[in-house]
Amino acid sequence: MQPPLFNRKTIPVPPFVPEIHRPSFSGRRVRIRRIPRAVQHRMRTAEKISVNDWALKHVQVTDGPHPGPFRLEYAPHTKFIMKIFSRPWTREIWFCGVEQSGKTRTMLNCLAWSVDVAPGNVYYLMPTEDTASKFISGKIKPMLQQTPQLRKYLSKRQDDTAVSRIQLTHGVTIFPAHANSASSMATFSARYCFGDEVDKYPLVTGKETDPITLIKKRNRTFKGRYKRFFASTPAGRFIHRGMEACHQVYEWRNRCPHCRELIRMDADHLLLPDAENPEARYACNNCGGIWTEGDREQAIRAGRWFCRKGAEIARPSTVGVHHRSWDCLDITLAEIALARKAALTGGPAEKIAWANGYEAIDYVPERQDRKEDLIYALADDRPDKLVPGNGAVAALTAAADTQDNGLYYEIRAWGWGLTMESWQIRFGFVQSFAELEEVIFHTQYQDAAGLYYPVHSCVIDAMGHRTGEVYDFVRKHPGRCQAYRGGSGRKSNPQTWTTIDRYPGTTIQIPGGIRLVTIDTHHYKDLLAGKLNIKPDDPGAWHLLASVRDTDPHGKEYARQMCAEYVDERNFWQCPDGKANHFWDCGVMNMVAADLLQIKYWTKGE
Predict the structure, then answer these.
(1) Cα(223)–Cα(407) distance, integer angstroms
(2) What does residue 467 show for φ and ψ, rounded to 5 degrees?
């Protein structure tokens, strides 16, 4: 029960009152007014404490493998990052790290400190509306409810603690925002802006600009007092370049248990498992001493942050931190060795996984401009329409690229297993959908033993040319034909599905609707480019017909179109104006068809 708002109380005579005046003070009763709790919160002088000390004192971790009071032994590298956020001159932090390297936990600790020690409105930006809602309900609200120092700020009104915003009793509001919506980052100003998983954001939000620029505008009125914190695993968008552009950049270095030198671990000194030594090990860059898994853990715990850029700057306003798999206690040497081996022997997907997920850098394709000689070298001696025999083929797929005057097509055979070896069966140009139907679905394709192979699936481009005809063609061949649309930008999910219920530009309904798959073409073009670099006698090769080497325009045109596109400095595929790339697109769509069928997981006898 709260004390009454007013209370009468006898107060003692203050010691500083002279003796001659003391009788007039004796027994005096005063009227005391109780200050409301909300006013007390606003009048409170903030405790001068760093984020790290505050987190150790107050934070309760509500999820993950280590629930309970926050402890640094699971992520010792985060102490310095929180210290940076506490510095009054720091305006921005860019945390570029691998998955599960403590990025979100560090940001939450900084947010909690901001709510209690230096109160101000907060924007927390997530990739999508769904992830923003889940983050508020699954992480921020439990943190506020289970941390006593923060729980006192929670309002008793249910509307003040919603997924759309959290209004605290001392005047702070936490706004969840999502990068797909400019309106979610509008109207309100905020002293603090947090951007989580920024490389999963779209390159442009709506018709405005990139989401990073939009969220920064929320701080404009807080000159010299705002703070921003961006974190993500790199994926070729914002985080790695943002980190490198900071005034100061730090990277973690591990202390060798043998020579006590600080070492930046790298793939050149990784000892992959072999018959003699089945466990992954590491050779010190300085002394050559061999580290076991236990030695590496000891080296990480004894390590420290090293400033590799801007060490001479006393008070940097922007600071970048780089944390790789080599420096993460939760990632073992065995896992790193497995990923490194896959990157050395695998295709672009494995190389991208190594760059982004282990080295925490943007993937830079190791490509040169393709030459037509490279395409000719992939041709074998098979005639058109002949399928490889001896049970090597699992299925046939087809692809068609629509044009105003006809359709370019290609039919390919796919081998068994994860290597996805592929053979060209037929390619060319037809003028009508009836001719395309004859080529794909009514022509018999056989191997040398006379075994017949049907085309399991055809992926056909539905955008730009003759879309209504494409929809009719797909409806005519349900289950064997798929409408396709290429997407722009690199996406976290290379495939998204929508249902089209009306013909384009009309109100005419499509009976039953059409399932349209939108593909991240950059992902599949990376895969195709990697295929073209495999030698014909190596597993996973991309085999072409003998007619590709023909000197007539038919063969020359195929090789020319397969060399039309290139990768720009942003790691996006581009086709110069005036260059045809239709057979290249057919190759991409065949990759999509094989992926949709999941042929690489088929086994013989199914």
Answers:
(1) 58
(2) -60, -40
Can you tell me the distance from the alpha carbon of 8 to that of 548, in angstroms, rounded to the nearest whole number?
101
pLDDT in tens, 31-72: 555 666 666 655 565 567 889 889 888 888 877 777 888 888
User: What is the residue whose two structure tokens read 């629930």?
Assistant: 67
- C-beta separation of 574 from 568 below 8 A: yes
Q: Which two tokens stand for residue 535?
A: 């030698």
Report d(CA 230, CA 193) in Å as an integer.
8
CA distance 455 to 477: 12
Token pair, residue 474, equals 């797909």
In whole angstroms, what is the distance from residue 224 CA to residue 460 CA? Answer: 55
Which residues are 499's β-sheet partners? 515
Contact 306, 251 (CB under 8 A): yes
Q: How far apart are CA 174 and CA 198, in angstroms?
A: 19
Statement: the pTM of the whole predicted model exceeds 0.90: no
Which residue is associated with the tokens 């466990």? Answer: 279
Can you read off the two tokens belonging to residue 289?
């001493």
Average pLDDT over residues 541-556: 80
Cβ-proximal residues to 537 (8 Å cutoff; 6+ apart), any chain: none
* Span 129-145, average pLDDT: 87
On whether the CB atoms of residues 265 and 282 are closer than 8 A, the answer is yes
- Identity of the residue numbered 166: I
Instruction: Supply the pLDDT for residue 18.
Output: 67
Evaluated on CA atoms 101, 70, 225, 129, the torsion sign reads positive
Selection from 167-171, 496-500, 540-544, 574-578 with the highest mean pLDDT = 540-544
Phi-psi region of 562 (alpha: psi -120 to 50; beta: other; left: phi over 0): alpha
Query: Which one-letter DSSP state was computed for residue 44?
Result: P
